[in-house]
Every structure is written in C-alpha cells, then in structure tokens.
Please model this.
Amino acid sequence: MVIMAVPPSSSPTFQPVLERIAEDVERTPGRGRPADYIPALAGRDPRAFGMAVAELDGTVYGVGDWQEPFSAQSITKVFTLALDLAREGDELWEHVGREPSGTPFNSLVQLEYENGIPRNPFINAGALVVTDRLQTRTGDAAGELLALLRAESGNPDLDFDEEVAASETAHGDRNAALAHLMVSYGNIDNPVPVLLDQYFRQCSIAASCADLALAATFLARHGVRADGTRLLSRSQAKQVNAIMLTCGTYDAAGDFAYRVGLPGKSGVGGGIIAVVPERCALCVWSPGLDERGNSVAGVAALDRFTTLTGLSVF
Model:
C-alpha cells in the first residue's frame, strides 16, 4: 500500500480540490464547540482542520492537519459493524434496527419505548449491542477492531488512547444505563462492565484523517480489503453504506444526505468519514461540533467536496 501526499502541481484531481476547500474553511467564522462532556476532548482547538482522500490503490491526498491523530469515537462503529456483520450475517438485525433514530444518539426514552431493540447500529445503544455481539464471538471486540484498522490503514502504530478511555469510563453513566436497560430486555450477553470497557476502548482509538480514509476504502471496494481478501459480501457492503447514509450523522442524517450526498459517519472527536463507491474514501476532522454532535467544518468541507467534484451517490 502506498501512502503519499501529492503536491498540488502534480495532482490531476483531488489535491487542488482539497486546497481550495481548506481555504474556504479557513474563512468560515463559526466552528462550533468541542465535545465538553468528555473532558479529554474538551480542550481541542475548534479551528483545527484536516482532510484526506484515499483512492482505491492506496494513494492519499491530504491538506491541513490530515496526519494528526485524533479520537475516532463513533467513526469506529462502522468498522465494528462490518466485523460483526461478516461473522453473523442477518442474525444481527434481530437485535438492532436499521432506521434513523430522530432522537439524540444517547436517548434512553426511545430504547425503552422499543423494548430494548436500538433503532440502528450507530446510536450508542445500537453500537453497544454490536460490540456485545462481537465480544461474544471473538473474546476481544476492541482488539479485533484495532487489528482491522491497523491492517486497512497500513499503520501498525494505531492504538487506544488510554486517557480518553479513562475519561469516558469516568463519565459513562448514560452508556451504562443504556446497557443495563438492554440487559433487562435480554438483548445483551456479556457483563455490563466488560461490555463498557470494550466499548470505551473502541471509541478511544486515535487515528489520523489519512488512517481513517484508507481504512474506509474497503467500503468503496464493495467489501474487499486492501490485501484483496473479502471482508463483506457486496450486498453487506451495500447495507453498511446505506445505514451510514441514513443514520451515520444521528438525527442530522437527512440534512447530511441533502448537503453531501455520500454515506458518512461522524464522531464527537470531530471526525467524519465518507465513501464514494468505486472511487475513494474520505476523512475530515475539525473538533468544533454543532448541537447534534457533528463537526461544523467537517460537514461544510464534505459539502464543498461533492459540489466541486460532482461525486455523490445521487
């Protein structure tokens, strides 16, 4: 796998676009606020910005802070979903739905109303179910996830951020409540402390825009990994991309689809990944979030990318 930054003068496509987007973002006055409910993330500069595009051959174009590691947070839910779906197939959908939530990503009310079956795999309750099921099948869900990200990004140094994991553990009461509620409905197999440890470690993984763009290219290749082996069937890759489009930015997914027109998944660390099937995968990072937990500059940059390139699924 080749990882390279191509200077603007020699790139026929993406690098000039990224440079133009960075200039536009720099002029944007409001950037939102970092996720202050996780103390380890609260101090990040909301005006930091990085963006990378990874082509299917492993070539990467980047701009700004595209090689700086940040907390991947909920972006990792895409990869955990892929790992579990590859193992159990459609049985997973008996335990988690595939519909947009329309409520905050950590809502307890909706979960109780729907008898402990989370609306989709990307809200916190749904991600806990997927992590729980992967833990049952592997004995180390977070370790399996880390191994996948290292392999697909080509970066063996990717790792958990123990400070972030500890910070989430210390402030994880709502996630614990979600897990215990689902236990009462018989939708969690592992002890809640084990599940929460796995989940918080999963979310704490630190990776750069380049790492995550490369890691997501298997979805642009319809489920085929960087080494040519198949992780997901073509149909399963379609399913993951579809759920990213409809649920990947929580209750802002409709607006994201309208503005960006690509499958995407955000995280409260300020990152967003997006997929252009058969062409490339992207990752953008800026820590300032809007009220729904999505990066303000990140959404604007992806909107600008699809506008300038004409690349979308529509």
User: Anything to note?
Assistant: The first strand starts at residue 50 and ends at 55.
